[in-house]
Structure formats: C-alpha cells, structure tokens
Amino acid sequence: MIHLSLIGIGTGNPEHVTLAGVRALQAAELILLPRKGEARSDLVDLRRLLCRNLLDEAALSRVVEFDLPRRDRRDDYLGAVDDWHAAIAETWREQISCHLPQGGRAAMLIWGDPSLYDSSLRIAERLELPGQGVEVEVVSGITSLQVLTAEHRIPLNALAEPVQITTGRRLRERGWPEDAASVAVMLDAGGAFQALAPEGLHIWWGAYLGMDKQCLIDGPLAEVGPAIVERRAALRERHGWIMDVYLLARTPLLSRMPG
C-alpha cells in the first residue's frame, strides 16, 4: 500500500505550514519536490528551504526532486490539461515505484491548499501502481485567499452577502457572475478585470503572497486597475514568473473601505 500525503504548505512562508503538515512531512519515507523549470526556480528553492527548516538530516535524505511535464499550449484547453494531468500522474508513478517499490508513505508539498484550484487530487485519482493500492491523505494548508484578505485586513465577503471564487479565464469570457457581491479571482494570466466595467468596483490585489517579494495594491478599480497591470508586467519581467490573486467587490466589505 502507498500512503500519499498531499500537504498544503501555504503561499511561500514556512511559518504557514500547520503542525499537522509538519507531522505528515516527518512521517514520510519519500518526499517528492517537483521542479517547474528555471523561471520558477524560486518555488522549488522555497520547498527546499521549508524541508531544511522542518526536517533533520536523516529525513532530508528522503527528499527527491523531479521535473514536471510541460502542458501543451494548444487551443483545446481542457483537453490539453487532461493530457497534462495524465502525464504528471505517470511521472508520480515512476518516482514512487522507483523509490518505494515495497510500498510506504510518500508526501508532496502543495502550494496553498489541495482543495482550492489545485489539481493534485485529480492527478492522485489517476495514480495506478500495479500490485499496490493508493491511500490519499489531504493535510489542509493556508490558501492565497486567506493571505490576501489577511494582508489587506478585510473579510472575504460583505455582511450576509455571497462571494464567488472563479478564474481569470471565466471572468474574461463571462463577465461578472450573476448575484455575486464579491468575486475572488485566481489563475489570471493577467488583467482579466479589464473586461469589466470598472465603475463601482473596488479591488484588492496581491502578488507573491507570503514571500519576501510580496506586493499589494488596492483601491477603486477605475483608479488602480492600470497601475496593477503595469506593476504585474514589471514584476513578471523582473522575476521571470508571477503568482497573484485578487478580490473584487461591489458592496463595501467594511463600513469604511481601506485605501
């Protein structure tokens, strides 16, 4: 039997790892660290730092790095993602079979939380190890939305109002979700909020949340939207990659809007 722990590690700050996450990491006989290419070397560096901070020398010897397959950028987005997930599952299978041929406990460090716009659970569902069963454990982590609202000192939703979590792609294609007072946007390739009429909207934006390069901007969308687009482009150029998330609201989240 393979016991696979998907451990949410927050957004880059080692202090965001929960005690349950630390226990699962220390119990693992194999800790898999994915590499995503030179442009995102910061991400694997942070995982390495986290492991060095939390594990002793014996446990560090159980850390194995591997290269993730690349996603095909074809027009059939869902089909390309499905094929990509299948390729990642095969890579996981190869690594686990190689390093735990008799079974045991494996762990993977997941940015944020495995439940929120992360595909690790879907990939784990595809994992097939001949002659071995796979038991998946999820260890919750701190999400980027939690860090975003904490850093801006705001709630996620207005009083007694709903909030919808969506992607930049869907916001751009479908506009403001019906009946939503607040909209949290993730996986935005850049500036999807520009597809909206900005009047009456407030935005709270954050990039590299939890990291030393964290950047925050908030204000009326009509005023700060162009500045966010410009800052985002500059940060991406400087670091070679960017992870950002933002919250939009029509209704004040607090009695007095910050900013």
Provide an overview of this structure.
The chain has 259 residues and is an alpha/beta fold. It has two domains: 138 residues, Tetrapyrrole methylase, N-terminal domain (Cobalt-precorrin-4 Transmethylase, domain 1, 3-Layer(aba) Sandwich); 106 residues, Methyltransferase, Cobalt-precorrin-4 Transmethylase, Domain 2. It is built from eight helices and ten strands. It has a five-stranded parallel beta sheet, sandwiched between helices. A hairpin with a 7-residue loop joins strand 8 and strand 9. Helix 4 packs across helix 5. The termini are far apart.
Topology:
Layout: E1 2-8, H1 19-27, E2 30-35, H2 41-54, H3 57-60, E3 63-67, H4 77-99, E4 104-110, H5 120-126, E5 134-139, H6 144-152, E6 163-167, H7 168-174, E7 182-186, E8 202-207, E9 215-220, H8 221-239, E10 244-249
Parallel strand pairs: 1-4, 1-5, 2-3, 2-4, 6-7
Antiparallel strand pairs: 7-10, 8-9, 8-10
Helix pairs in contact: 4-5
